[in-house]
Amino acid sequence: MGHEHKLEIFRGLIKFKNNITKIWGVFVLLSIITIIEVYVGITKPEFMTESRFLAMKLINWFFIILTLVKAYYITWDFMHMRDETKGLRRAVVWTAIFLICYLILILLIEGDYIYEVYKNNYVKFDF
């Protein structure tokens, strides 16, 4: 009946003695990522706010990627997805990836449209 939990993160790079230390380790990892996000959000480095990639500023991509990393570790460790069967893990993760990609696509399309409307002062699409 006893199920062994995997006590490592970063694909076995960091190993913990028990679940309590692993929870604290993941908490520290998520805290560090959050501190980095807050620091970048406050300082707003010039190269990130002026450069663009796929119609979005680099700083926005930075926040999206770090948020996805945090979501992954919350799901993987705190929701114990690492201990589930391969089929359930894939069903949850693939669905989330599809929805996140779809939401980013909507963000890019609608955000670019609104930017063009305000920039050129005309409506590009007539819904």
Describe the structure.
The protein is mostly helical. The chain has 2 domains: 83 residues; 43 residues, no CATH class. Helices cover 68% and strands 6% of the residues. The protein contains 4 helices and 4 strands. β3 and β4 form a beta hairpin. 1% of the residues are buried. The model has no long low-confidence stretch (mean pLDDT 80).
N→C terminal distance: 58 Å
Rg, Å, rounded: 19 Å
Assembly type: single chain
Number of separate strands: 4
Q: Estimate the global geometry from the Cα principal axes.
A: flat
Compute the average pLDDT: 80
- Could you say how many structural domains there are in total? 2
Count the helices. How many? 4
What is the strand content?
5-15%
Could you say which structural class the secondary elements and strand pairing correspond to? mainly alpha
Widest sheet: strand ordering: 1-2
Order of helices and strands: EEHHEEHH
Largest sheet: 2 strands, antiparallel
Helix content percent band? 55-70%
**Low-confidence parts:** none
Quick description:
This protein has 127 residues and is mainly alpha-helical.
List keywords for this structure.
two-stranded antiparallel sheet
